[in-house]
Every structure is written in C-alpha cells, then in structure tokens.
C-alpha cells in the first residue's frame, strides 16, 4: 500500500542538506494513519474513545541513504504480522528511481484509557491477517556489543511542554530522536567540539540504525530524563544505548547507531576529529 505518494522533500524537513531524522518518524506516523483508515480502525475512532491509537511498542529502522532536498519519495507500508491486540507494519521509503532509502519495522498497540492494550476488533484483525505478507528484512542494529572501557556517558533532562505533545496529550514520538540529538550535541560541546564547525561536505552524527522499545508513554508536564551510554566507536558507527525515564519509570529503552553521510545522503566514514570526543 502506498501511504505517501510521490512527495518531494521540502526545505522545512531538512537539517542542513539532508532530511532531519525525526522526519522519518513523521513519515511513519502519516503512513500508520493511512493504513489504520484503510483497514477500518482509524485514529479518529480510537481518539473519540480516549484511547491512544497505534502506539509504537518496538521500532527498528535502517537508513540506507538519507533523503535530500529535491528527492521525490514514496512510502510503501504492508502488515507483516498481527496478534490479538498488535499489528506489525513494514515501512519502506523509495526515491523516484525505486531505490530503497529507509526500511522501518514497527509493532503497534492501541492503548485503552485505563492503560491496557485494546484488542483489535475482529473484522480489523481478520483484514490485517488476510493482507499480511511474508517479509523478514534485516533492519535496525544487527549485532550487540559489550561496552568498551572508559567510553563516555551523558545525560539531558527535558520538560515536556505543549509544543512536544500530540493529540493524546502525550509526548509526540517524533520528538524523542530530537531529545537524543540535543543530548549528543551538548555532550560534544562540553568536549570542545562544535557541530557547526564539523559539518560541510560531511554530515556527522545522524541516526543510521536504531531499535527502540517503548515501555510506557511520556505524560504532559513531566520531566523526561535522557540517559546515554556510548557502547562502541569506529569510523562507521557510534553506538549509543538510550534510556528515557520520567517519574522514576523507564519510558523508552533502545540502541541508536549514528553515522556520517555526505551531502547527497550516502554513508561515508567519520573523520578522526569527529570520533575524538568519544575516545577514552
């Protein structure tokens, strides 16, 4: 199912010459709403009953090439698994030449006002089951690493205010990569590395592969703490373990891998000065 058709990347979606990482989350959310409506269980129906529609539970994503200004993108979305209360969707972002730029796999659960998972209506579950395709892409971080010695950790706290919330009055999941990015930039600044002095032909510290598990929603007017532990560093990838907590409860736990890209969005190695702040 084509959930976004032939849409050109716009200036407002950019961070420098390439699409901002959070826009990839936004495209997924738009696509999820299109799928939900097509399968007869739209967001509007769930919100009218004070539910949280299609909340992400697990998100795995790989960026093969970052979309850039002028790229024309299409998002194709298909169900690959369905349970009593969950549906797993595969999202693929293609350019006008049919090259796959981004692959994402997400498990969604609708949350009731009491906080439990809502069972899918039987006709919806049946429709998803009939439409499921057999796909098992290699997406997200594929290897686990033991944390190297003397690698740094850093922390950032963010108050959740109205600009960060969505229709369910919870923190919008597009914002989480922004919070992680702010934490990373503040860490770099404390190490004497200013991102603006490094960007040019190379665009470092962009999300490349990630797997995040959403354990509980982040409420409006709470303080969100972003704890970051660097796991490994090499010329291709900086791997960071993230834990998002509020009110002493873990909301999100995951692994993010940051890469470096050229101005057309193709992955390239980090320079020495780009990885120096993370070395023991």
From TrEMBL:
Signal peptide from the UniProt entry: none
Entries under Gene3D superfamilies matching the protein: Hotdog Thioesterase
Domain Acyl-ACP thioesterase N-terminal hotdog, residue spans: 60-111
Pfam family, one: Acyl-ACP_TE
Annotated protein name in UniProt: Acyl-[acyl-carrier-protein] thioesterase
Lineage per the UniProt record: Archaea, Methanobacteriati, Methanobacteriota, Stenosarchaea group, Halobacteria
């Amino acid at each position: 199912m084509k959930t976004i058709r032939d849409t050109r990347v716009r200036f407002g979606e950019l961070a420098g010459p390439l699409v901002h990482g959070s826009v990839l989350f936004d495209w997924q959310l738009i696509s999820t709403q299109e799928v939900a409506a097509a399968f007869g269980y739209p967001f509007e129906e769930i919100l009218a009953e004070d539910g949280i529609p299609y909340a992400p539970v697990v998100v795995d994503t790989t960026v093969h090439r970052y979309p850039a200004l002028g790229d024309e993108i299409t998002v194709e979305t298909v169900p690959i698994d369905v349970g009593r209360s969950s549906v797993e969707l595969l999202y693929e972002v293609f350019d006008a030449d049919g090259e796959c730029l981004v692959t994402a796999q997400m498990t969604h659960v609708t949350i009731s006002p009491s906080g439990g998972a809502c069972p899918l209506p039987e006709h919806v579950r049946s429709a998803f089951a009939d439409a499921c395709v057999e796909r098992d892409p290699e997406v997200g971080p594929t290897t686990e690493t033991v944390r190297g010695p003397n690698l740094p950790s850093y922390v950032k706290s963010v108050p959740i205010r109205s600009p960060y919330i969505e229709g369910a009055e919870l923190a919008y999941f597009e914002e989480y990569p922004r919070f992680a990015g702010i934490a990373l930039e503040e860490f770099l600044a404390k190490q004497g590395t200013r991102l603006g002095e490094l960007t040019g032909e190379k665009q470092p510290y962009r999300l490349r592969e990630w797997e995040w598990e959403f354990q509980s929603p982040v409420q409006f007017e709470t303080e969100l703490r972003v704890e970051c532990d660097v796991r490994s560093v090499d010329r291709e990838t900086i791997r960071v373990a993230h834990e998002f907590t509020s009110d002493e409860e873990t909301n999100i736990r995951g692994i993010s891998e940051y890469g470096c890209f050229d101005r057309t969005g193709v992955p390239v190695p980090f320079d020495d000065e780009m990885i120096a702040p993370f070395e023991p």
